[in-house]
Amino acid sequence: MHRADGCREYVRDMSSSELTEATAADATTRPAQDGAGAHGERAARAPGEGVALGGGRVARAAVAIAIIPARGGSQGLPGKNLARVGGAPLVARAVHAARAAERIGRVVVTTDDAEIAEVARRAGAEIVDRPAELSGATASSESAVLHALGESGFDAASGPAVTVFIQATSPFIDPADLDAAVLRVEQGERDVVFAATPTHGFLWRERADDADGASATGVNHDPTDRPRRQDREPEYLETGAFYALRTDGFLLARHRFFGRIGIQRVHPDTAVEIDDAADLARARALAPRVDRRLAGTVAAMLARRSGAAWVADPRHPFIDVDAVATDFDGVHTDDTATVDELGRESVRVSRADGAGIARLRDAGVPVLILSAEANPVVSRRAEKLGVDCLQGVDDKGAALREWAAARGIRLDRVAYVGNDRGDIPALDLAGWPIAVPDAAPDALERARHVLERHGGHGAVRELADLVLAARAATNAAAGGAPREGESRELDPAHPTREQRGAIAAASVTT
């Protein structure tokens, strides 16, 4: 990439098709990284095979395969499997939850849609092409799961002990619930365990008037007897989120319910199933609160899966990425500017942010500043920080895609932090879309994580600390060895601390 005084005005020099092809080729040629974060692709393992760590240790033994049917057609909400909730497409959220579960060894998405397949693949799933005869509106989900098992080479004799059927239209799945359901089936307690939430609601069924004039009748209660809630045993509402199935029994029954059936109680907040636009709006409204509750658990489980130690804290997600990109105004600054009598602008930045970026550079993490405005102050700041910078950018998504492709970095391995509508194209591409707390509502809606610190007051430092903590945890689990695909070659524009020390030592000796 051409660099001129730390920053250059962005000129898009690749066609959309060339950009798509370059990124797709990169995604298929770069090796998968075991122990990656929520979006990093993980190498396929056979059921029951643990994650190999530094020193030959194995993190856990997985016994289940997760299968996620996600067809492209939808009558109620077109394209719903790609609809974003909390910064991630629904199919990617399902993959993330399955990959975070410790007892699931393989995650497969079966789909007839190329875009869904690409999103799922980038999220870390294997892909099974779903044939047209199993992709229509009348095709059962069971038929897709059975086909995916067959395409994965499994039968009643050789299949994994447990198959977990997961529906992408349930956006809030706790990996701990998946593990609990799998364990109950694995240990023989039940043949099927499905997600359900307790309810004490009085249900009614409306019917046509008959001779006695009645038009509605109680379904689960006697209308003349109204016991208090605390005096009633709960009933359970099937959420549709997941079904843990004994594989050999499922292959014989060819239906999700058979044998001894158990209920895995899930939190009522997670009992959301998206069928139409109203459901999607409700899920998006709930996401900031529900995701914050789940984030700590998911982070800790992802870290443990890679053999790393991590404290479950919703403020500290496991942001394991290979690069960081940011907006400038409102992220590095407080989104205000001072103008003197000559019309010269100045902005306020945080020294803490500078220190955070220096640590990222020392760790070999590339950093990019993207700015819609072409302004000398952006150039000067990028030059001082020693990072890449593109300004005068109309389409930040295209610019981010080109920069990542040029560096051989998958977009799902990029964290991008923004604050306004102009950042949406980049937020939609990044594996970790992140927002500052006072970001525009449209930007907040797309964020997987919202920082606590504001722009110009340490927001970049906060993100840098999260990224470096995740890298330290995974590197420690791997015995301190370089991460697969991580370069140790000298980048003259971004030398690490170790490389700068080696350069200085060489200068003294010569």
Automatic annotation (TrEMBL):
Top class in the EC scheme: transferase
Q: Which cofactor does it need?
A: Mg(2+)
Give the UniProt keywords, A-Z: Hydrolase, Magnesium, Metal-binding, Transferase
Under catalytic activity, the entry for this protein gives: an N-acylneuraminate + CTP = a CMP-N-acyl-beta-neuraminate + diphosphate
For molecular function, the Gene Ontology terms on record are:
transferase activity
| Listed Gene3D superfamilies | HAD superfamily/HAD-like (3.40.50.1000), Spore Coat Polysaccharide Biosynthesis Protein SpsA, Chain A (3.90.550.10)
User: InterPro entries, per this entry?
Assistant: CMP-NeuNAc_synthase (IPR050793), Cytidylyl_trans (IPR003329), HAD-like_sf (IPR036412), HAD_sf (IPR023214), KdsC_fam (IPR010023), Nucleotide-diphossugar_trans (IPR029044)
**Alphabetical list of Pfam families matching this protein:** CTP_transf_3 (PF02348), Hydrolase_3 (PF08282)
Basic and acidic residues bias located where?
1-12, 222-233, 483-500
- The residue ranges crossing the membrane are none
Q: Which domain of life is it from?
A: Bacteria
Q: Where is this region: Disordered?
A: 1-50, 212-233, 476-510
Respond yes or no to whether keyword Zinc is given for this record: no
- Compositional bias ranges of the Low complexity kind: 20-29
Q: In which pathway does it act?
A: Amino-sugar metabolism; N-acetylneuraminate metabolism
* E.C. no: 2.7.7.43
Oligomeric form and interacting partners: Homotetramer.
- In which family does this protein belong, per the annotation? Belongs to the CMP-NeuNAc synthase family.
The protein depicted here goes by the name N-acylneuraminate cytidylyltransferase
Query: Where does this protein come from, organism-wise?
Result: Agromyces marinus
